[in-house]
Amino acid sequence: MSIFNPTNDVCKVRILVLPESSMMCVASVLEPLRAANRVSGKTLYAWQLVSLTGEPVSMTCDVPLAIDAQFNEHLRGDLLIVIGGFNQLKHVSISSLSIIRKATSGFSVIAGVEAGSWVVARTGLLNGLQATTHWEDFETFADQFPEVDVKFDRFVVDDKCMTCGGASPAFDMFLDLIRKRNGQAVAMEVASVFVCDEAHSQFDAQPLVSLGRLAKQDARLEQAVRLMEKWIEQPLPVAGIAKRVGVSSKTLEAVFKKHVGMTPGRFYLNLRLKSANRMVNDSNLSLREIAVRSGFNSLSAFSRAYGQAFGKSAREVRLSGGDS
User: Fold this and answer.
1) Same domain flag for 181 and 300
2) Domain span holding position 153
3) How far apart are CA 316 and CA 322, in angstroms?
4) What is the pLDDT along the chain (324 residues), one digit of tens a residue?
5) Phi and psi for 110 in degrees, rounded to 5?
6) Which of 103, 169, 237, 242 is close enough to 154 for a disulfide, judged by CB 3.0 to 4.6 Å?
7) Does 88 map to a domain?
8) How many independent structural domains does the chain possess?
């Protein structure tokens, strides 16, 4: 029986946490399940935290996460969740990946949270399926796994795989699982525990910029930013963005200066440079390819803008192996 079918049977969950994962992602997985148990007064979900070594895992905040057991190919359960963050290639060797691949046969559903989706993709389970990952990695993920149909959705459920882009989408994804298994009433109570208004749909696109309450304060700002996000590789002129939003260039400039303290042109350039900086740090793309993907018509123009923004050249950042 599918774990997505209505039932109050216990769902046995094993959570593989990789080093350099986000504590927020772990909480966004565990807390909805814990709350479902609490509000229902039943053990609907029973989980175990595991690591590849069996030792505590150091998170991105440098806090060690206690682990219940060592991951092995003989683990069994209903749902296997892989949570990853930075440097998943470093933390999941070929031999470890082989163990993970063998273990997946013992579970009904496999979930990848943030960089965990990369690990699931490396097992081959996502081939021919729809999936997603954190918005920062869309391009490189799609390049690395051409047989995966990459979606920009907050989370994706396809066949026996679930994938999502980060902490907030992870909360949405597991709240959706609770809704399907345990009913709308339990899901609503769980959402209420965390004062969550469930405003996001599974199919909402992941935003590159989280505008928060600004989106409600001025819809023109949100429209303009979403256009900028969509046209990173081929930047639109500010006048073209203003026209699409339905305002004059002067009005759009006033909107941006009021809400974000800079011109739309400067905001757009910063957005493109942040996208470029992510690719410099987290991909193997050439600098020329990064320049193209972040909307620069020449490598020299990209290099000049990057250096002014981050105080180092992209080449220096690559050679140092660290974030700028």
Assistant:
1) no
2) 11-193
3) 9
4) 689 999 999 999 999 999 999 999 999 999 999 999 999 999 999 999 999 999 999 999 999 999 999 999 999 999 999 999 999 999 999 999 999 999 999 999 999 999 999 999 999 999 999 999 987 788 788 889 999 999 888 899 999 999 998 899 999 999 999 999 999 999 999 998 887 765 555 555 555 555 555 666 788 998 998 899 889 889 999 999 999 999 999 999 999 999 889 999 999 999 999 889 888 887 888 999 999 999 998 999 999 999 999 999 999 988 886 555
5) -115, 135
6) 169
7) yes
8) 2
